[in-house]
Each structure stands twice: as structure tokens, then as C-alpha cells.
Amino acid sequence: MASNTEMNKDMSRFELGRVTPLDGDRTQLTLTRDFAAPVEQLWAMLTDPAKTEMWWCRVRGRARTGSSFDLKWLNVKDEGHGIETDWWNGRVVTAEAPHVLEITNAMHGTIRAELTANGTGTRLVFTNVISVPEEVILMSMAGWHVHLDHLQEALEGKSVDWQHWWDDFYPCWEEIHAAYTAAD
């Protein structure tokens, strides 16, 4: 696997996502990306634990409606070194392979990925409905933006070195967070 230093760190190569206030304290984050990969390959990146760990997190569970689908973040900082978080329990709301995966998660609300063939590639519409304090909304949006950049790299066979994520990619997260803040 490629190291983080070989991965693209240009977080502006994809358009900014959209933040939509919903009822009460819920907010929907939406990012749309076009990938030069078939739908089935994107589906595997979202559902195969060996592949999700390349760009997103560790997954425990199966992509079947009603099944558990727990997430463990791998890029949490502790004294300058990457550490793992506890498992955040979740459940699959909808799994319609290879087009729709919707999960709920104790930490991240409702996460939905819709995959549509788009010529020779795939369009991903990624949404996350969260209930968090206002100051956390754009932080979450920047986080998803960076993870989806990591997905582009994973499709090219590169994997994030989670132990060094903070040194390698936190500056990228800060850059894209500043872009979201400026656009708000």
C-alpha cells in the first residue's frame, strides 16, 4: 500500500458540499462526487471492511438491512500519535446492493450513500444527518470531505496510514474547514 506521502493532499480538487438545516436541531450534510470506477467497486469500498479501512474507518457488521454496522475511527489523536476510538454502534437501515447504503450510528446520526452509474463511472451522493452543536457542523463537513478524498485515493489502491494521519492530513482538514467556514 502507498504511504500517506504518496497520496494527493489537494482537498480543493472536489467541490464543497452543502449544509441544509432540517427540523429542530438536525442538519443534513451533502457531498456529491463523480468517480471513474464502476458502481460495484464503490459499493465494495463502502461495505467491505478490508476496503473501508483504507479510507474511512474500521467496520464491524454486514451491509444487510437490519444488521449491525459498527464504526471505529482510526484517526483520533493522542499525544501526537494516531489511536483508535471505541466502537460506535450502528445499524443498517437500508442496503440495496450496489446502489444504496443507509446506516444509523450512535456518534454520526444517519449516513446514506447513493450510487448511480454515470457513464463509465459512478456518482456518489453522500448525506449525513446529524444533531450536533452549530460549531461542530462545519467540522463534520470538512471531515467527510477529507474522507471522500481518501476514497478517491483508495480507488487507486492507496491506503491511509492512520497512525500518521494527524501529521499527514490534519493540515488538509484545516484547509478545507477554512474553505467551508469562508463559504458559510
TrEMBL record:
Q: Which Pfam families match?
A: AHSA1
By its UniProt entry, which SUPFAM superfamilies does this protein fall under?
Bet v1-like (SSF55961)
Q: Which domain of life is it from?
A: Bacteria
* Chain segments annotated as transmembrane: none
The Activator of Hsp90 ATPase homologue 1/2-like C-terminal domain covers which part of the protein?
36-156
Give the similarity note: Belongs to the AHA1 family.
Q: What is this protein called?
A: Activator of Hsp90 ATPase homologue 1/2-like C-terminal domain-containing protein
| UniProt source species | Arthrobacter livingstonensis
